[in-house]
Amino acid sequence: MNPGIELLLRQQFPSLFQDGFEQTSPDDPIYNCIAWAAGDTTNWWWPGISYWPPGVPEQETLAAFIAAYGGIGYEPCADAALEFAFERVVIYSLAGVPTHAARQLDDGAWTSKLGEFWDIKHTTPGGVEGPVYGQASQYLRRRLSPERASVRLRRWAHAWYARHAP
User: Total domain count for the chain?
Assistant: First the structure.
């Protein structure tokens, strides 16, 4: 990793290096973290600036971001727990204003899009907390489709077998 980028990441995301992360894509200015968490790689999501789901207030409030994800099936939940039949998103905020979102992966790790830059995989939601994105403020979950649940079950079974096979 470029030493300058590493220093910047260490300053902006102090927990990321302790938590563990890996870059999973090259830079892509087409979409941002809010879109990435929603599964959209063709739009930049932000109220009043670019794409924003129809019918959702164009406000930089936690309630508006919860409503945006609500339009694609997410509902508030208590924590980052990995559940078989659900996928999760977390919204981060700084001084009450949403700043970032991340999505939970099938293995329980999380994926984030760092601005216009790359997507990363990080171990916990806390990895990207800090002076830039603030704190994880609201967890959301939605039920997996039967097809996605089937894929998740196969991945989990394969991972279990890989750990326990003779």
Answer: 1
Give the pLDDT confidence of 68-126 residue by residue, as tens digits. Answer: 999 999 999 999 999 989 999 999 999 999 999 999 999 999 999 998 888 999 999 99
Residues in the chain: 166
Where in the sequence is the domain holding 41, given as residue range(s)? 3-164
Q: What residues contact 74, with CB distance under 8 A and at least 6 apart?
A: 66, 89, 140, 141, 142
Residue 129 · residue 70 · CB < 8 Å: no
Name the E strands within 21-161.
21-23, 75-77, 86-94, 97-104, 110-113, 119-122, 135-143
Task: Decide if 34 contacts 65 (C-beta within 8 A).
Answer: yes
127 close to 20: Cβ distance less than 8 angstroms: yes
pTM, full prediction: 0.92
Q: What is the pLDDT of residues 18-70, one digit of tens each?
A: 888 999 998 899 999 999 999 999 999 999 999 999 999 999 999 999 999 99
CA distances in angstroms from 93 to 33, 131, 132, 137, 155, listed in the order given: 13, 10, 9, 6, 32
Rounded to whole angstroms, how far apart are CA atoms 122 and 162? Answer: 22
- CB of 64 closer than 8 Å to CB of 34: no
